[in-house]
Amino acid sequence: MRVRIKEIRKRKGMSQEELAGLIDLSRPYLAQIESGARNLTAKKQEMIAAALEVDPVELVDFSAPDQDDEKMLLMAFRSLNPEQRKAWLGWAQVALGSDSQDQDA
Q1: SS3 60
Q2: CA-to-CA distance for 88 and 79, rounded, in angstroms?
Q3: Predicted TM-score (pTM) of this structure
Q4: Residues forming a β-bridge with 3
């Protein structure tokens, strides 16, 4: 899951300071929500969406992996031996739609 508040706020030409003032939060607190350091509660999601004049579901991209998933994948990759890493990277290239010939060009 990825929070899209910063992206939408910037698209609307609004600063963190302006948005924070509209929803009665401190700018540092809002920055932490935008960066994922603080959780976005349903209540805050509704307040922010109203201030940005968007539907609350637009503030979150549920298709994006969360940081815990990314950390787990990195830890798993680091635990592999060199041959396993090479195989994993080969699979990743296939998943991304590229092959080793593309990289050599």
Answers
A1: strand
A2: 12
A3: 0.61
A4: 60
